[in-house]
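REVIEWER CHECKLIST
Item 1: Sequence provided? yes
Item 2: Single chain? yes
Item 3: Sequence as submitted:
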Amino acid sequence: MAKAFFRPQKFLRRTQCLLFSLTAAYLMAGSLLLLQRSRLVFQQSSRGTSGNQPLVIADVLHSARITDSRAPPQSPLSLLGSKEQLPVPTPDQTSGPRWLMSRNSELRQLRRRWFLRFINEQEPVQDAGVKVGKPASGSRGRNIIYRGCFRVPENLTNTFPAAMMHSNLTVEMCSEFCSKKEFPLAVIRGPFCHCGYPTVHFPLHNSSDRSLCRRLQNVSGTAEMPSREDYGLAYQTPVQDTRCTDRRFLPTKSKAFVALSSFPGAGNTWARHLIEHATGFYTGSYYFDGTLYNKGFKGEKDHWRSRRTICVKTHESGQKEIEMFDSAILLIRNPYKSLVAEFNRKCAGHLGHATDRNWESKEWPDFVSSYASWWASHVLDWLKYGKHLLVVHYEDLKQNLLPQLHKMVAFLNISVTEDRLLCVENNRDGNFKRSGVRQKRFEPFTKEMKDLINKYIVIVDKALWDRNFSGLPKEYLPR
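Item 4: Structure as written out by the authors:
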Protein backbone atom coordinates (compact mmCIF):
# COMPACT_ATOMS: atom_id res chain seq x y z
CA MET A 1 0.00 0.00 0.00
CA ALA A 2 2.81 2.36 0.92
CA LYS A 3 4.61 1.43 -2.28
CA ALA A 4 1.57 2.30 -4.42
CA PHE A 5 1.38 5.73 -2.71
CA PHE A 6 5.10 6.42 -3.13
CA ARG A 7 5.08 6.05 -6.96
CA PRO A 8 2.66 9.00 -7.69
CA GLN A 9 4.57 11.16 -5.19
CA LYS A 10 7.82 10.42 -6.97
CA PHE A 11 6.21 11.25 -10.32
CA LEU A 12 4.96 14.61 -9.04
CA ARG A 13 8.43 15.51 -7.74
CA ARG A 14 9.97 14.75 -11.11
CA THR A 15 7.28 16.81 -12.84
CA GLN A 16 7.98 19.81 -10.58
CA CYS A 17 11.71 19.59 -11.31
CA LEU A 18 10.99 19.39 -15.03
CA LEU A 19 8.69 22.43 -14.93
CA PHE A 20 11.25 24.40 -12.93
CA SER A 21 13.97 23.53 -15.45
CA LEU A 22 11.81 24.56 -18.41
CA THR A 23 10.90 27.85 -16.72
CA ALA A 24 14.53 28.66 -15.99
CA ALA A 25 15.54 27.87 -19.56
CA TYR A 26 12.72 30.09 -20.91
CA LEU A 27 13.76 33.02 -18.73
CA MET A 28 17.41 32.66 -19.70
CA ALA A 29 16.54 32.58 -23.40
CA GLY A 30 14.35 35.68 -23.02
CA SER A 31 17.12 37.53 -21.19
CA LEU A 32 19.66 36.71 -23.91
CA LEU A 33 17.25 37.90 -26.62
CA LEU A 34 16.57 41.14 -24.71
CA LEU A 35 20.31 41.79 -24.29
CA GLN A 36 20.87 41.19 -27.98
CA ARG A 37 18.13 43.64 -28.95
CA SER A 38 19.33 46.25 -26.44
CA ARG A 39 22.84 45.97 -27.90
CA LEU A 40 21.48 46.54 -31.40
CA VAL A 41 19.49 49.62 -30.28
CA PHE A 42 22.53 50.99 -28.44
CA GLN A 43 24.79 50.50 -31.48
CA GLN A 44 22.40 52.32 -33.81
CA SER A 45 21.51 55.13 -31.38
CA SER A 46 25.20 55.76 -30.60
CA ARG A 47 25.69 57.01 -34.17
CA GLY A 48 23.59 60.12 -33.40
CA THR A 49 24.01 62.79 -30.76
CA SER A 50 24.15 61.29 -27.28
CA GLY A 51 21.52 62.18 -24.74
CA ASN A 52 18.93 63.39 -27.23
CA GLN A 53 16.18 60.87 -26.57
CA PRO A 54 14.14 63.26 -24.36
CA LEU A 55 14.41 65.87 -27.12
CA VAL A 56 12.94 63.43 -29.62
CA ILE A 57 10.00 62.81 -27.34
CA ALA A 58 9.58 66.55 -26.80
CA ASP A 59 9.60 67.06 -30.58
CA VAL A 60 6.79 64.53 -31.03
CA LEU A 61 4.75 66.11 -28.25
CA HIS A 62 5.33 69.58 -29.68
CA SER A 63 4.03 68.48 -33.06
CA ALA A 64 0.76 67.28 -31.54
CA ARG A 65 -1.79 70.08 -31.83
CA ILE A 66 -3.79 70.92 -28.74
CA THR A 67 -7.33 71.80 -29.73
CA ASP A 68 -9.87 74.06 -28.14
CA SER A 69 -12.50 72.50 -25.90
CA ARG A 70 -15.26 73.61 -28.29
CA ALA A 71 -13.69 71.65 -31.15
CA PRO A 72 -14.52 67.96 -31.67
CA PRO A 73 -12.08 65.60 -29.90
CA GLN A 74 -9.18 64.51 -32.04
CA SER A 75 -8.42 60.84 -32.49
CA PRO A 76 -5.10 59.88 -30.89
CA LEU A 77 -4.22 57.94 -34.05
CA SER A 78 -4.43 61.12 -36.12
CA LEU A 79 -1.46 62.53 -34.21
CA LEU A 80 0.73 59.73 -35.55
CA GLY A 81 -0.09 60.26 -39.20
CA SER A 82 -1.16 57.72 -41.82
CA LYS A 83 0.54 54.40 -42.45
CA GLU A 84 2.05 55.74 -45.66
CA GLN A 85 4.01 58.31 -43.63
CA LEU A 86 5.80 55.69 -41.54
CA PRO A 87 9.36 54.84 -42.60
CA VAL A 88 9.71 51.67 -44.70
CA PRO A 89 12.79 49.43 -44.23
CA THR A 90 15.14 49.36 -47.21
CA PRO A 91 15.82 46.06 -49.06
CA ASP A 92 19.33 45.73 -47.59
CA GLN A 93 17.93 45.52 -44.07
CA THR A 94 17.66 41.74 -43.99
CA SER A 95 18.64 41.04 -40.40
CA GLY A 96 16.90 41.80 -37.11
CA PRO A 97 13.21 42.04 -36.26
CA ARG A 98 11.19 44.24 -38.63
CA TRP A 99 9.50 46.23 -35.84
CA LEU A 100 12.90 47.09 -34.36
CA MET A 101 14.35 48.27 -37.68
CA SER A 102 11.24 50.36 -38.34
CA ARG A 103 11.42 51.91 -34.89
CA ASN A 104 15.13 52.76 -35.23
CA SER A 105 14.54 54.29 -38.66
CA GLU A 106 11.81 56.47 -37.14
CA LEU A 107 14.10 57.60 -34.33
CA ARG A 108 16.87 58.50 -36.76
CA GLN A 109 14.48 60.63 -38.80
CA LEU A 110 13.16 62.37 -35.69
CA ARG A 111 16.68 63.04 -34.46
CA ARG A 112 17.69 64.41 -37.86
CA ARG A 113 14.64 66.73 -37.88
CA TRP A 114 15.41 67.96 -34.37
CA PHE A 115 19.10 68.54 -35.18
CA LEU A 116 18.32 70.58 -38.31
CA ARG A 117 15.77 72.66 -36.40
CA PHE A 118 18.28 73.17 -33.57
CA ILE A 119 20.95 74.36 -36.02
CA ASN A 120 18.53 76.77 -37.71
CA GLU A 121 17.51 78.28 -34.38
CA GLN A 122 21.16 78.91 -33.48
CA GLU A 123 21.92 80.92 -36.62
CA PRO A 124 21.40 84.68 -36.03
CA VAL A 125 19.01 86.37 -38.46
CA GLN A 126 20.72 89.39 -39.99
CA ASP A 127 19.08 92.09 -42.06
CA ALA A 128 21.04 93.67 -44.88
CA GLY A 129 23.07 96.59 -43.66
CA VAL A 130 22.41 95.95 -39.95
CA LYS A 131 25.14 94.71 -37.66
CA VAL A 132 23.92 92.19 -35.11
CA GLY A 133 25.65 92.68 -31.77
CA LYS A 134 26.10 90.27 -28.92
CA PRO A 135 22.68 89.76 -27.26
CA ALA A 136 22.20 91.04 -23.73
CA SER A 137 22.02 88.12 -21.31
CA GLY A 138 21.15 85.34 -23.71
CA SER A 139 18.14 86.17 -25.88
CA ARG A 140 17.26 89.50 -24.27
CA GLY A 141 18.85 91.49 -27.08
CA ARG A 142 16.28 90.13 -29.52
CA ASN A 143 13.38 91.41 -27.41
CA ILE A 144 14.30 95.10 -27.25
CA ILE A 145 11.47 97.12 -28.82
CA TYR A 146 11.95 100.72 -29.93
CA ARG A 147 9.03 102.86 -28.68
CA GLY A 148 10.03 106.24 -30.07
CA CYS A 149 11.58 109.62 -29.32
CA PHE A 150 9.89 111.40 -26.41
CA ARG A 151 10.27 114.54 -24.38
CA VAL A 152 11.51 113.58 -20.92
CA PRO A 153 10.06 115.16 -17.75
CA GLU A 154 12.01 117.73 -15.78
CA ASN A 155 12.23 115.68 -12.59
CA LEU A 156 13.91 112.53 -13.87
CA THR A 157 14.55 111.07 -10.41
CA ASN A 158 10.84 110.74 -9.59
CA THR A 159 9.96 109.32 -12.99
CA PHE A 160 12.92 106.95 -13.44
CA PRO A 161 13.99 105.25 -10.18
CA ALA A 162 17.23 103.78 -11.59
CA ALA A 163 19.93 105.31 -13.78
CA MET A 164 23.51 104.83 -14.88
CA MET A 165 26.10 106.63 -17.02
CA HIS A 166 28.55 105.11 -19.50
CA SER A 167 30.76 106.91 -21.96
CA ASN A 168 30.21 104.22 -24.63
CA LEU A 169 26.60 103.44 -23.80
CA THR A 170 24.72 101.16 -26.22
CA VAL A 171 21.06 100.29 -26.48
CA GLU A 172 21.70 96.73 -25.35
CA MET A 173 23.80 97.86 -22.39
CA CYS A 174 20.99 100.13 -21.21
CA SER A 175 18.34 97.45 -21.78
CA GLU A 176 20.37 94.86 -19.89
CA PHE A 177 20.91 97.24 -16.99
CA CYS A 178 17.18 98.07 -16.75
CA SER A 179 16.26 94.39 -17.12
CA LYS A 180 18.46 93.47 -14.16
CA LYS A 181 16.71 96.20 -12.18
CA GLU A 182 13.34 94.64 -13.23
CA PHE A 183 12.10 97.67 -15.19
CA PRO A 184 10.19 97.35 -18.49
CA LEU A 185 11.32 100.71 -19.87
CA ALA A 186 14.79 101.98 -20.81
CA VAL A 187 15.37 105.60 -21.87
CA ILE A 188 18.66 106.80 -23.34
CA ARG A 189 19.88 110.40 -23.24
CA GLY A 190 23.43 110.45 -24.57
CA PRO A 191 25.64 108.66 -22.02
CA PHE A 192 22.77 108.39 -19.52
CA CYS A 193 20.49 105.35 -19.17
CA HIS A 194 17.24 105.76 -17.22
CA CYS A 195 14.95 102.90 -16.11
CA GLY A 196 11.30 103.00 -15.08
CA TYR A 197 7.67 102.48 -16.08
CA PRO A 198 5.25 104.29 -18.38
CA THR A 199 3.45 106.76 -16.07
CA VAL A 200 1.28 109.86 -16.33
CA HIS A 201 4.54 111.84 -16.38
CA PHE A 202 5.98 109.69 -19.19
CA PRO A 203 3.03 107.90 -20.86
CA LEU A 204 4.71 107.03 -24.20
CA HIS A 205 2.08 109.02 -26.09
CA ASN A 206 2.64 111.67 -28.75
CA SER A 207 6.12 110.66 -29.86
CA SER A 208 8.29 113.41 -31.32
CA ASP A 209 10.21 113.65 -34.58
CA ARG A 210 13.14 111.26 -34.70
CA SER A 211 15.52 114.04 -35.61
CA LEU A 212 15.17 115.45 -32.09
CA CYS A 213 16.72 112.24 -30.74
CA ARG A 214 18.90 111.39 -33.74
CA ARG A 215 17.85 107.75 -33.39
CA LEU A 216 20.51 105.21 -34.38
CA GLN A 217 19.79 102.68 -37.11
CA ASN A 218 22.32 100.28 -35.59
CA VAL A 219 20.83 98.56 -32.54
CA SER A 220 24.21 97.74 -31.03
CA GLY A 221 25.91 101.05 -31.91
CA THR A 222 27.01 103.71 -29.47
CA ALA A 223 24.22 106.05 -28.37
CA GLU A 224 24.59 109.65 -29.53
CA MET A 225 23.61 112.80 -27.68
CA PRO A 226 20.13 113.94 -28.73
CA SER A 227 19.81 117.23 -30.56
CA ARG A 228 18.08 118.57 -27.43
CA GLU A 229 18.83 117.33 -23.95
CA ASP A 230 15.14 117.19 -22.95
CA TYR A 231 14.42 114.34 -25.40
CA GLY A 232 15.27 110.67 -25.07
CA LEU A 233 15.07 107.37 -26.94
CA ALA A 234 12.60 104.96 -25.28
CA TYR A 235 12.92 101.18 -25.53
CA GLN A 236 10.82 98.40 -24.08
CA THR A 237 12.93 95.77 -22.32
CA PRO A 238 12.11 92.04 -22.12
CA VAL A 239 10.86 92.56 -18.54
CA GLN A 240 7.08 92.42 -18.09
CA ASP A 241 5.33 95.36 -16.49
CA THR A 242 3.95 93.70 -13.34
CA ARG A 243 1.97 96.64 -11.95
CA CYS A 244 -1.25 95.27 -13.47
CA THR A 245 -0.71 91.50 -13.43
CA ASP A 246 -2.30 90.82 -10.02
CA ARG A 247 -5.82 89.44 -10.38
CA ARG A 248 -8.33 87.79 -8.08
CA PHE A 249 -11.99 86.87 -7.76
CA LEU A 250 -14.46 89.43 -6.48
CA PRO A 251 -14.45 89.52 -2.65
CA THR A 252 -18.28 89.56 -2.61
CA LYS A 253 -20.82 88.49 -5.20
CA SER A 254 -21.48 91.17 -7.78
CA LYS A 255 -24.91 92.79 -7.77
CA ALA A 256 -24.91 93.25 -11.54
CA PHE A 257 -24.57 90.18 -13.75
CA VAL A 258 -22.56 91.50 -16.72
CA ALA A 259 -21.91 89.75 -20.03
CA LEU A 260 -18.96 90.25 -22.36
CA SER A 261 -20.74 89.26 -25.54
CA SER A 262 -19.30 88.86 -29.01
CA PHE A 263 -19.47 86.80 -32.14
CA PRO A 264 -16.68 84.15 -32.25
CA GLY A 265 -13.48 85.61 -33.70
CA ALA A 266 -14.32 89.16 -32.60
CA GLY A 267 -11.53 89.41 -30.01
CA ASN A 268 -13.36 88.30 -26.86
CA THR A 269 -10.25 86.66 -25.37
CA TRP A 270 -8.19 89.79 -25.98
CA ALA A 271 -10.89 91.97 -24.42
CA ARG A 272 -10.91 89.68 -21.36
CA HIS A 273 -7.15 90.11 -21.04
CA LEU A 274 -7.54 93.90 -21.09
CA ILE A 275 -10.43 93.92 -18.60
CA GLU A 276 -8.72 91.57 -16.15
CA HIS A 277 -5.50 93.57 -16.10
CA ALA A 278 -7.32 96.89 -15.94
CA THR A 279 -9.67 95.97 -13.08
CA GLY A 280 -7.59 93.36 -11.25
CA PHE A 281 -10.51 90.88 -11.27
CA TYR A 282 -10.98 87.64 -13.20
CA THR A 283 -13.52 87.32 -15.99
CA GLY A 284 -15.77 84.28 -16.27
CA SER A 285 -17.01 82.25 -19.20
CA TYR A 286 -20.22 80.56 -20.29
CA TYR A 287 -17.95 77.78 -21.57
CA PHE A 288 -14.88 75.98 -20.24
CA ASP A 289 -11.72 76.20 -22.29
CA GLY A 290 -8.77 74.37 -20.74
CA THR A 291 -6.31 76.18 -23.01
CA LEU A 292 -7.48 79.56 -21.73
CA TYR A 293 -7.40 78.36 -18.14
CA ASN A 294 -3.81 77.20 -18.52
CA LYS A 295 -2.93 80.61 -19.97
CA GLY A 296 -4.04 82.39 -16.81
CA PHE A 297 -7.79 82.91 -17.22
CA LYS A 298 -8.60 81.31 -13.86
CA GLY A 299 -12.22 82.41 -14.01
CA GLU A 300 -12.66 79.94 -16.86
CA LYS A 301 -13.05 77.14 -14.34
CA ASP A 302 -15.49 79.02 -12.10
CA HIS A 303 -19.22 78.45 -12.62
CA TRP A 304 -20.44 81.12 -14.99
CA ARG A 305 -23.30 82.11 -12.64
CA SER A 306 -21.16 82.34 -9.51
CA ARG A 307 -21.01 86.18 -9.76
CA ARG A 308 -17.43 86.02 -8.51
CA THR A 309 -16.09 87.41 -11.82
CA ILE A 310 -16.26 90.94 -13.18
CA CYS A 311 -18.06 89.83 -16.37
CA VAL A 312 -18.82 86.61 -18.25
CA LYS A 313 -17.77 85.75 -21.78
CA THR A 314 -20.56 84.50 -24.05
CA HIS A 315 -21.18 83.97 -27.75
CA GLU A 316 -24.83 83.07 -27.17
CA SER A 317 -27.79 84.90 -28.64
CA GLY A 318 -31.52 84.52 -28.29
CA GLN A 319 -33.97 86.13 -25.88
CA LYS A 320 -33.64 83.63 -23.04
CA GLU A 321 -29.82 83.63 -23.01
CA ILE A 322 -29.62 87.43 -23.21
CA GLU A 323 -32.20 88.31 -20.59
CA MET A 324 -30.30 86.31 -17.95
CA PHE A 325 -27.80 89.20 -17.80
CA ASP A 326 -28.41 92.59 -16.22
CA SER A 327 -26.08 94.38 -18.64
CA ALA A 328 -23.51 93.63 -21.31
CA ILE A 329 -20.47 94.90 -23.14
CA LEU A 330 -21.23 94.09 -26.77
CA LEU A 331 -17.97 93.68 -28.70
CA ILE A 332 -18.36 93.99 -32.48
CA ARG A 333 -15.70 93.33 -35.11
CA ASN A 334 -15.61 93.65 -38.88
CA PRO A 335 -17.33 90.47 -40.12
CA TYR A 336 -14.66 89.89 -42.76
CA LYS A 337 -11.98 89.82 -40.05
CA SER A 338 -14.15 87.89 -37.60
CA LEU A 339 -14.89 85.13 -40.09
CA VAL A 340 -11.21 84.72 -40.99
CA ALA A 341 -10.17 84.70 -37.30
CA GLU A 342 -12.78 82.11 -36.32
CA PHE A 343 -11.96 79.90 -39.30
CA ASN A 344 -8.29 80.03 -38.27
CA ARG A 345 -9.26 79.03 -34.72
CA LYS A 346 -11.40 76.15 -35.88
CA CYS A 347 -8.65 74.83 -38.15
CA ALA A 348 -5.53 75.57 -36.08
CA GLY A 349 -6.45 76.63 -32.54
CA HIS A 350 -6.23 80.00 -30.80
CA LEU A 351 -2.76 80.89 -32.11
CA GLY A 352 -2.52 79.06 -35.44
CA HIS A 353 -3.46 79.70 -39.05
CA ALA A 354 -5.54 77.64 -41.45
CA THR A 355 -3.58 76.01 -44.27
CA ASP A 356 -4.05 76.62 -47.99
CA ARG A 357 -5.85 73.29 -48.16
CA ASN A 358 -8.37 74.54 -45.59
CA TRP A 359 -9.07 77.73 -47.53
CA GLU A 360 -9.42 75.89 -50.83
CA SER A 361 -11.72 73.21 -49.44
CA LYS A 362 -15.52 73.21 -49.51
CA GLU A 363 -15.45 73.82 -45.77
CA TRP A 364 -14.64 77.53 -46.19
CA PRO A 365 -17.65 78.57 -48.37
CA ASP A 366 -19.94 76.48 -46.16
CA PHE A 367 -18.49 78.22 -43.12
CA VAL A 368 -19.11 81.70 -44.58
CA SER A 369 -22.64 80.80 -45.62
CA SER A 370 -23.66 79.81 -42.09
CA TYR A 371 -21.49 82.07 -39.93
CA ALA A 372 -22.14 85.35 -41.79
CA SER A 373 -25.82 85.24 -40.84
CA TRP A 374 -24.86 84.36 -37.27
CA TRP A 375 -22.65 87.48 -37.10
CA ALA A 376 -25.67 89.63 -37.96
CA SER A 377 -28.24 87.82 -35.81
CA HIS A 378 -25.92 87.93 -32.79
CA VAL A 379 -25.75 91.75 -32.83
CA LEU A 380 -29.43 92.15 -33.68
CA ASP A 381 -30.55 89.91 -30.81
CA TRP A 382 -28.44 91.75 -28.23
CA LEU A 383 -29.71 95.10 -29.49
CA LYS A 384 -33.27 93.83 -29.19
CA TYR A 385 -33.19 91.98 -25.86
CA GLY A 386 -30.20 93.51 -24.06
CA LYS A 387 -31.19 95.59 -21.00
CA HIS A 388 -28.19 97.87 -20.66
CA LEU A 389 -25.50 97.83 -23.34
CA LEU A 390 -22.08 99.31 -23.97
CA VAL A 391 -21.16 98.83 -27.62
CA VAL A 392 -17.42 98.58 -28.25
CA HIS A 393 -15.92 98.15 -31.70
CA TYR A 394 -12.84 95.99 -31.86
CA GLU A 395 -11.17 98.40 -34.28
CA ASP A 396 -11.68 101.38 -31.92
CA LEU A 397 -10.18 99.32 -29.10
CA LYS A 398 -7.11 98.60 -31.23
CA GLN A 399 -6.59 102.18 -32.36
CA ASN A 400 -7.58 104.07 -29.19
CA LEU A 401 -7.00 101.65 -26.36
CA LEU A 402 -6.98 103.95 -23.34
CA PRO A 403 -10.20 105.91 -24.12
CA GLN A 404 -12.06 102.67 -24.78
CA LEU A 405 -10.64 101.06 -21.62
CA HIS A 406 -11.85 104.05 -19.62
CA LYS A 407 -15.39 103.48 -20.95
CA MET A 408 -15.31 99.75 -20.23
CA VAL A 409 -13.94 100.15 -16.68
CA ALA A 410 -16.51 102.85 -15.89
CA PHE A 411 -19.31 100.63 -17.26
CA LEU A 412 -18.13 97.85 -14.90
CA ASN A 413 -18.23 100.36 -12.02
CA ILE A 414 -14.56 99.89 -11.08
CA SER A 415 -12.14 102.64 -10.08
CA VAL A 416 -8.56 102.23 -11.31
CA THR A 417 -5.48 104.43 -11.44
CA GLU A 418 -4.18 105.93 -14.64
CA ASP A 419 -0.81 104.23 -14.12
CA ARG A 420 -2.52 100.83 -14.05
CA LEU A 421 -4.20 101.55 -17.38
CA LEU A 422 -0.83 102.60 -18.80
CA CYS A 423 0.51 99.25 -17.59
CA VAL A 424 -2.30 97.50 -19.49
CA GLU A 425 -1.41 99.49 -22.58
CA ASN A 426 2.21 98.38 -22.18
CA ASN A 427 1.05 94.72 -21.94
CA ARG A 428 -1.74 95.07 -24.46
CA ASP A 429 -1.12 91.92 -26.54
CA GLY A 430 -1.19 89.27 -23.81
CA ASN A 431 -0.64 85.58 -24.65
CA PHE A 432 -3.16 85.20 -27.45
CA LYS A 433 -1.85 87.32 -30.26
CA ARG A 434 -1.86 85.09 -33.32
CA SER A 435 1.73 84.83 -34.58
CA GLY A 436 3.89 82.63 -36.75
CA VAL A 437 3.60 82.08 -40.48
CA ARG A 438 0.49 83.75 -41.79
CA GLN A 439 -1.62 82.53 -44.66
CA LYS A 440 -0.67 83.71 -48.12
CA ARG A 441 -1.94 87.10 -49.23
CA PHE A 442 -4.98 86.27 -51.29
CA GLU A 443 -8.64 87.22 -51.34
CA PRO A 444 -10.54 84.42 -49.59
CA PHE A 445 -13.94 86.01 -50.24
CA THR A 446 -15.66 85.50 -53.59
CA LYS A 447 -18.06 88.06 -55.04
CA GLU A 448 -21.02 85.99 -53.85
CA MET A 449 -19.59 85.91 -50.31
CA LYS A 450 -19.05 89.69 -50.34
CA ASP A 451 -22.59 90.36 -51.53
CA LEU A 452 -23.95 88.23 -48.67
CA ILE A 453 -21.74 89.80 -45.98
CA ASN A 454 -22.30 93.37 -47.20
CA LYS A 455 -26.05 92.85 -46.97
CA TYR A 456 -25.72 91.92 -43.30
CA ILE A 457 -23.41 94.88 -42.65
CA VAL A 458 -26.05 97.33 -43.89
CA ILE A 459 -28.73 95.69 -41.73
CA VAL A 460 -26.61 95.79 -38.55
CA ASP A 461 -25.51 99.38 -39.20
CA LYS A 462 -29.12 100.52 -39.44
CA ALA A 463 -30.08 98.61 -36.28
CA LEU A 464 -27.33 100.35 -34.31
CA TRP A 465 -28.48 103.80 -35.41
CA ASP A 466 -32.09 102.87 -34.54
CA ARG A 467 -30.97 102.10 -30.96
CA ASN A 468 -29.15 105.47 -30.71
CA PHE A 469 -25.69 103.92 -31.00
CA SER A 470 -23.10 105.12 -33.45
CA GLY A 471 -23.09 102.99 -36.59
CA LEU A 472 -20.41 100.60 -37.74
CA PRO A 473 -16.96 101.99 -38.60
CA LYS A 474 -16.55 102.99 -42.23
CA GLU A 475 -14.13 100.17 -42.92
CA TYR A 476 -16.98 97.68 -42.37
CA LEU A 477 -19.00 99.08 -45.22
CA PRO A 478 -19.17 97.27 -48.59
CA ARG A 479 -15.76 96.44 -50.03
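Item 5: Key structural point noted by reviewer: Strands lie at 145-151, 162-165, 185-189, 192-196, 231-236, 258-262, 284-285, 312-314, 327-332, 389-393.
Item 6: Recommendation: ____
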